[in-house]
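pasting Putative pterin-4-alpha-carbinolamine dehydratase for the record, 101 residues
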Amino acid sequence: MADLLSADEVTSALADLDGWSGDTSAISRTLTAPSFPAAIRLVVEVAEAAEDADHHPDIDIRWRTVTFTLSTHSEGGVTGKDISLARRIDELAEAHAATNP
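structre below
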């Protein structure tokens, strides 16, 4: 089990995450990839990282635009697992030249 983060903890974490927003219920980031295939490659790599972490984001794909939403559903909100996966998504986005819209 993971502990829910307080509003202050979520706000502090979001300050260190580029392009992420949200509250104690969920955090999200929308990225634009250079092409549709690049967006799909990013999603595949995030899926692999999520599987390794046993923590899975909600993913919305619209052409080159991908939105990742993170929440620890079993706990009812944002936990450290979500912040860790957000950091990993940021690393993968940078590697794929995906940017904030």
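The first strand starts at residue 21 and ends at 22.
The chain has one domain: 7-95.
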